[in-house]
């Protein structure tokens, strides 16, 4: 195997199946040596297949690549460190971290229990921080490295019944940008991808209406393998000038997503009162207010 990542070492968390597996296999095809991390749990976090990581790694080796399986959790400091140590012990270095691990505990906000909130935050957001932090010391010393974090249009735009997931995924965008800014001087890059692909993360989408059924049918056409090339590019030296950005990949489409910036302003020399704001703000800002849309409302055309 050879390609854009020849000689580089990558960690992919949550790589036992779905998007993570496709990314791990795609990176190996591009020449990377891969640490396939997965604890082998269901979508909601219960134990399912403890050998998932090793099965994916074995498949990569069977095709001529180099890979090891890793079953450590991303959500605890010590185990996150061991994931990175596995890369160093197995391959001598680390060049790319792909934070993909995640679970779901969906519930309408007013019915969401604290443990449902915390479980999702711990894996997605805390896990991304811990694994990134464990790799950061190596990136700093070698003055190179790349992070690719999986966000979601559920966080960037919105979705019903996913306050925990939305908060975690939008938090990952902030984390990625902070890493990009703090580690720029060491030649380290950090970017996000919002993947559109049929996987466990989207298989729980409700199909109660005809519109939802049509949406899910379209999602099933988008395979996880479509995400891997963008991850490989962002992890390669070819993406040297790309950092702190948010992309989306939807079948054969690649998007650069906007990030919050001022869109309108009001100034009042004597300062504002609540009454003055009530009089002027709705008319001035109303046309520019962001509507309460779901991801499906914004990405409303058929994938190409």
Outline the structure in words.
The chain is built from eleven helices and eight strands. It has an eight-stranded mixed sheet, with helices on both faces. 42% of the residues lie in helices and 13% in strands. It has one domain (9-259): Rossmann fold (3-Layer(aba) Sandwich), CATH 3.40.50.720. The protein is of the alpha/beta class and 304 residues long. β4, α4 and β5 form a beta-alpha-beta unit. The chain is globular and about 65 Å long.
Q: Which percent range describes the beta-strand content?
A: 5-15%
Examine the secondary-structure arrangement and name the CATH architecture: 3-Layer(aba) Sandwich
State Rg: 20 Å
**Adjacency order of strands in the biggest sheet:** 3-2-1-4-5-6-7-8
N-end to C-end Cα span: 29 Å
* CATH class identity: Alpha Beta
- CATH superfamily membership, which one? NAD(P)-binding Rossmann-like Domain
Proportion of helical residues: 40-55%
Layout of secondary structure:
Elements: E1 9-12, H1 18-29, E2 33-37, H2 52-62, E3 67-70, H3 77-91, E4 96-99, H4 114-142, E5 145-150, H5 153-156, H6 163-182, E6 188-196, H7 200-203, H8 210-219, H9 228-235, E7 246-250, E8 253-256, H10 274-285, H11 295-298
Parallel strand pairs: 1-2, 1-4, 2-3, 4-5, 5-6, 6-7
Antiparallel strand pairs: 7-8
Helix pairs in contact: 1-9, 3-4, 4-6
């Amino acid at each position: 195997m050879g390609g854009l990542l020849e000689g580089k070492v990558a960690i992919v968390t949550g790589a036992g199946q779905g998007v993570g597996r496709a990314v791990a296999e795609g990176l190996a095809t591009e020449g990377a040596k891969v640490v396939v991390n997965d604890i082998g749990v269901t979508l909601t976090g219960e134990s399912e297949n403890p050998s998932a990581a090793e099965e994916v790694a074995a498949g990569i080796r069977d095709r001529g690549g180099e890979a090891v399986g890793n079953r450590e959790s991303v959500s605890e400091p010590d185990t996150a460190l061991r994931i990175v140590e596995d890369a160093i012990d197995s391959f001598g270095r680390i060049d790319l971290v792909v934070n993909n691990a995640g679970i779901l505990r969906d519930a309408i906000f007013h019915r969401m229990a604290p443990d449902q909130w915390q479980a999702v935050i711990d894996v997605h957001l805390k896990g991304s921080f811990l694994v990134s932090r464990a790799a950061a010391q190596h990136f700093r010393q070698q003055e190179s490295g790349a992070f690719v974090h999986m966000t979601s249009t559920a966080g960037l735009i919105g979705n019903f019944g996913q306050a925990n997931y939305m908060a975690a995924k939008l938090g990952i965008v902030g984390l990625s940008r902070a890493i990009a800014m703090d580690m720029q001087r060491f030649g380290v890059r950090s970017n996000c991808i919002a993947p559109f692909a049929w996987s466990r993360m989207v298989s729980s989408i409700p199909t109660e209406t005809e519109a939802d059924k049509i949406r899910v049918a379209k999602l099933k056409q988008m395979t996880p393998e479509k995400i891997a090339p963008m991850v490989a590019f962002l992890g390669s030296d070819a993406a040297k000038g790309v950092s702190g950005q948010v992309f989306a990949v939807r079948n054969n489409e690649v998007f650069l997503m906007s990030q919050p910036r001022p869109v309108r302003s009001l100034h009042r020399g004597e300062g504002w009162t609540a009454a003055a704001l009530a009089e002027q703000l709705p008319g001035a800002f109303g046309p520019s207010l962001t509507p309460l849309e779901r991801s499906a409302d914004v990405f409303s055309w058929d994938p190409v």
